TrEMBL record:
Keyword annotations of the record: Cell inner membrane, Cell membrane, Membrane, Transmembrane, Transmembrane helix
Membrane-spanning residues: 7-27, 33-50, 81-98, 104-120
Species annotation: Methylophaga sulfidovorans
Membrane topology reported for the UniProt record: Multi-pass membrane protein
Pfam families: DUF454
Subcellular location: Cell inner membrane
Descriptive protein name: Inner membrane protein
Xref: InterPro entries: DUF454
A single GO cellular-component term on record: plasma membrane
Domain of life: Bacteria
Major subcellular site: membrane
Keyword Cell membrane annotated: yes
Amino acid sequence: MRTRIKHLVLICLGWMFVALGIIGVILPLMPTTIFLILALACFAESSPRFHQMLLNHKWFGPPLRQWQQTHSMRRDVKKKVYLIIILSFAISIGAVWGRLWLQVMLFVIGLTLLACIYRIKESN
């Protein structure tokens, strides 16, 4: 019984992370990749079919396969991520102009994200 519940919880979490990842494609402050990596981990433990579905996806599959195999990111993908983070946080900081504490908070979060991405191994 516990195995069945664990299985269902992991599938539900996996789909929730997929949904958050898809929302992250649209919203600038939502990190798409990390949610898809979490979904991949949930599906690896609960559903080989959904796991393969993510790995074989037209857009998300190649970076997820690379992450699963080498825990690295292609240099061009990393550059795109840097650009998206910088642009989205610059727009967000501009949108809260006059609220210094929000601007500082966004700036710190942006720098933290950039540092996390920087620490990921690069592949060519």
